[in-house]
Amino acid sequence: MDITRRQFVRLCGGTAAVVLPFGLTRCAASRPAHELIEDVEWKKGLADASLRVANSRGATFADVRVVRNLIQTIAADDQAIKGVPGEWHYGSSPEHVLEKVDIGFNVRVLKDGAWGFAASPVLSEDEAVAVAGLACDLAEKAATTIPEPIRLVPEPVHVDTWVTPHEEDPFTVPLDEKVALLLRINEEVRRNPQTDRAFSWLDFWDENKFYMNSEGAEIQQRLVRSDGSFFARAHVDGVTAQRRFFINPLNIGYEYIRGLNLPSHAERIAAEAVEKAKAPLIDFSGQLDVVMDPQNICLFEHETIGHPTELNRTVLVETNFAGSTFLAPEDMGSYEFGSPVMNFVGDRSRPMLRSTCGYDDEGVKTQEWDVVREGKLVGFQTTREFATYVGEEASRGCCMTESWDRVPQGRMPNLSLEPGGQDAPSPEELIADTRRGLLFRGFSSRIVQDYQRRYHTYTGNAVWEIENGRTTRMLRGAHYYGQNPGELWHRLETVTNPASWEPAALDSDDIGQPTQRNHNTHGAPWARFRNLNVGGPGS
Amino acid sequence: MILTEAEVREIFDTGFAAATADEVELTMAWYHEVNREVVCGSTKVIRFSNSYIRDDTVVMPCHPLQIHVAFGNREGAAITNQLDPAGITDAVARAEAIARAAAPNESHRPLHGPQEYPEIPGFDEATAALTDEERHEAVAGVIERLQADNLNGSGYFHVDDTLEAHANSAGAWFYRRATKTGYAVTVRSDATTGRESSRIGSGWAAAGDLRRFADLDIPGLTDVAIRKALGSVDPQPFEMGPHTVVLEPSAAASFIGLLMRLWSGSARTVGAWGTPSEAGARVASEHLNLRTQPGHPQIMGSPYGPGGMPLGERVWVEDGVLRNVPGGENGPAVHLVGDGASKSLEDVIAGVDRGILMTQNWNTMLRTIDPPHVNGMTRNGLFRIEDGQLAGPLQNAWYSLRLDEFANNIEDASRPYNAASFGSSGLNGNLMPALRVANFNFYRPSEAV
To answer: With contacts defined as CB-CB under 8 Å, which chain A residues touch B189?
Structure first.
């Protein structure tokens, strides 16, 4: 595609680009940015202006992303509506319902074998030209330090539109209704007189991404995300305990929130918070069978499998901040990660999961692939650049950027533990088959792990003793721990049946300098590990 | 271009004109979302790894406008980075729609009127004018050296040109430009990856939150990281248990940050919240002194505090006694200076007969509030100290201890240094002392490097 300035002006709505106050060049004032972002033809014109510059400067590859993120977060602390934890300048939480609009574009070029990247919130042709030229300048400078030119594996050219399947746009649901839902949940929690706090929240994202590259790709995507949850806090005899209701965050519309009937779970969660506050501290240290539910496995697999198999960490790209991993590229195909029932699949294509989309942020069609098969490492998370490090001929589609102002990076996709066959036990049968052990439910962020993901310690949001096939009492302070490899996934003995698999997910995952957030699902069945190391908080 | 004061006033006027709420606050400043810092202004980053530049990035000026409104005590907020009249009007309307739907906030605080802010010049023209060529040259030299010596280097160098502005419908007004720069580098003695890397050496050095590029010694910091990397090759195991440990300022900073949260009552673990300590209580040994000093010549931080209130100097800990409880009316524990001693880091090391030097740490986190139990692990250089001298590298290790005991076991402190530590933005630099701490408990060796 090659447009003239006159065509560009027409795409802007028939009037010339104008200079508004504050030096912000805009298309005609009748076309504000939040309208332009919905106009795919206009975005093609913008991207093309950048790509023509990159081409004329001799870039071997260039791509452009025009991005609008719309985020709405609502939280209720008992009967007060607040924001979520975060800082608006020096520590104070927003303490308001928050709606955020963030619009801009970026240009990445591969020139002289090195990357250059520039971004701007100003949507105009002049800016598109300037930003592309700047990205080329930066790549030329970076190239003087490159020992070998960066190479990309090929990808077919895609021209497509992709939208998260959803029925009800979360942003069209009246705020009154969302506020009423949260207050109702908290009211139900606080019916239990031994609770002293209820906290609930809803979180919605609408990501509008237009992607275009120098190879001809033109991809318009819209990702819709719905999340929310609540917790109850109990205070009994000087002990405070919190129990969270874990919903599985999904890429889906508000129909998901409606279907959850969140208030109906409040009574159980409140009662379990009280039970947790009354529970004794674990007084055992040694080896026990451990049963984990999908929401507990979620964080465990994220840290022990997800980060170690990020190929960019493996090749020391993240050393200065997040760290590296105990895996090396040459481990693929030979490293024994765990027991034969351990099967992990990476994907960005399974319906509704958090990382699912049509194409990644460098135009690669999303897919599904084996990461661990029968306990052996068989795949890494790759981008078009990093696939070359393990001799693969195509990317796994793991290039992502959170927003217009962050550089694309290799990021973790959905990564899930596969269930057993139809004849595998149900969760109830698994517990019934456990003579003595611990049941961990829900994740807790109070984990211990080193920066190469060798040693790990985890706990759960709630932990029960299992005696003779039955859960008996809750325990506080219980942890499981071990060294990767050998002491963790090699002890995986049983995974439950496909009906028990759930698309659990974390609240956030961050990487890079400056950091970027990421959304991904870590689905899992229930699982039992034999003779896992367990103990108290000092484990 | 970064918006001028007149341009910001014009934008704010548009916002005020669009609003119908009883109270309106408009802010342009950095803000911190979960795991993500948003810069108000421009940011330029060079990120290198495997001893070459991976990302040289420039984000053109962006001025996210934060809008808070209230109808009575019903509050709403919105953020937009689109500053044309339509974008501002749309965002104000969103904030007002939210406020109308929100439940009353019983702790709603009325707006403050005009305030007097201390003059703290945080803008350095030369730093703002740094060209991309000059930024590149600043890093290219160290990359050349790393490549020539076959060292594996990863680093992060940023230059921000930022703006803070605030106004409200009660007449408050604040505008300030500031520059900010920092550099962090990790050097590994070679490029070995995976499990085989446990015998290599790794070193780290950083400086952060500086106003002037001229104060950022990129070659010098890289030298420090190289020395630590080469000095920590083939680390040796050591006996787990209590040791006398010298924490370099960056390592000390992570403990001091936790202590401030503990004393303020804002420390939390899942399901457990702390309670504030009492002013006047002895909370640490006499070697610990901490205060907030935005105007310190090595900080030159913002005088703009929470809610737009002025942020002045405040003493938190004096000779181990908590003089003011951080948070609330006393303001946040930011722009920290831990002074009170004149000796250097080397002097502190020289005073140790037998001990361990911790240069950096990782994952230092409160596990329980009561008692305040902390664990974490060492990173990028752990060294034995014998007779006041460094005496060889040690294997990294996990530690576990009580935070209150840590504070009381401080036996010595140095003068303060820029103590860059990892934050979500990459680098935060308070001025922290090196600390000598007795009975610092290690419990598990680690092969991670």
So the answer is: none
